[in-house]
Amino acid sequence: LERSTSSFSYASYHTLEEIYSWIDNFVAEHSDIVSKIRIGHSFENRSIVVLKFSTGGPQRRAIWIDTGIHSREWITHATGIWTAKKIVTEYGKDRTLTDLLDAMDIFMEIVTNPDGFAFTHSMNRLWRKNKSTRPGIFCIGVDLNRNWKSGFGGNGSNNNPCSETYRGPSPQSEPEVAAIVDFITSHGNIKALISIHSYSQMLMYPYGHSSEPVPNQKELNDLAKDAAQALYEVHGIQYIYGSISTTLYVASGITVDWAYDNGIKFSFTFELRDTGRYGFLLPASQIIPTAQETWLALRTIMEHTLNHPY
Amino acid sequence: QMNFTGDQVLRVLAKNEEQLSLLRDLEGLKPQKVDFWRGPARPSLPVDMRVPFSELKDVKAYLGSHGLAYSVMIKDIQVLLDEEREAMAKSRR
Q1: Are B27 and A162 in contact (CB under 8 A)?
Q2: CB proximity under 8 Å: B 51-80 to A
Q3: How high is the mean pLDDT in each 10-residue block of chain B (93 residues)?
Q4: SS3 (DSSP) at A267
Q5: Residue (of A53, A49, A41) closest to A67 by Cα position
Q6: Interface pTM (ipTM) of the complex?
Q7: H-helix segments, A144-212
Q8: Are strands A190-198 and A240-243 parallel, antiparallel or unpaired?
Q9: What region, left, alpha or beta, does residue A183 occupy, with left being phi > 0 and alpha being psi -120 to 50 degrees?
Q10: How many C-alpha atoms does B53 have within 13 Å on its Cβ side?
Q11: How far B43 CA lies from chain A's nearest CA (Å)?
């Protein structure tokens, strides 16, 4: 296992154990600004861990970022790790990030689906769902991004347990989703939520379950445009942006719809690279370029959240 | 580890809603066989699907018979997975 975060290879993919070990080292090395919170456990009883970046103060306004809800999207976990490191290295140097962390907290869940992620390393690299089982049901797993209580059960989700978009028996039936819902709800002051997926280069906002524009559509669209432009300027990767239902497809019971319906105005979801060659098997050599460009988009959204309190 | 030797990812460009619908039908015709990496959404977006080696002939025939243009995005998934494993092992070393 890696001994410290300085010897950790950010340009490589890692197992769950390596990531959890990195988290422990990272928290120990940056204890003035980072702490680890265990918000629950997975179906197979693995810890669900969140990194908290804070310079102090109780229940500050905060930003939530999650990666890896679909376990085969390895580039998202790797981007999350790089981003976490970037936050601590830029604090005190980057004016925007420093102002942000002086006023707000950032929460990052790097492995949102630990059971699925472990399974991608041990059994099936292309596993997407979690690992929950139910008596009498042959197929395993629920799509954690169809299990949220917003438009649950509607179009773009599936009631067939064998489907990759199986929504589960009821909203928030999955412990991985329930843990986040409980945490964000009890926190009560999350102002932006960013859920990171891969691949196909998109930046989207609610709704997924409906083609009706959300009340803040113009502000979200303008912000998505700015974030996509910031991202493009790093390596020339073009993202399309818009609401989920009009940009990609109708999808019900998804994270960002739930966030928006629960008062988190700045709710976005990314689809990171690939540009059409590797899909979920993006080579590790592309981790850092992907993370670098994503950082600029994240920073744009975070800055807007800081400067537009509500 | 599950072996994906010979499995391919096909990129299909549907011209219209009718062709998208044919791709959606494929999911029903080959349940749990065709894994959509990018599902049939709208004609402006490509559809990527992983097809197991055992189904390749059938699926390509289906696409051909309905005039659906496709290219092979990944020729052999296992080759990429082996490279990925090797890169991880090398990084650890």
Answers
A1: no
A2: 73-74, 77, 80
A3: 96 94 86 88 93 96 95 98 96 85
A4: strand
A5: A49
A6: 0.95
A7: 175-187
A8: unpaired
A9: alpha
A10: 9
A11: 11
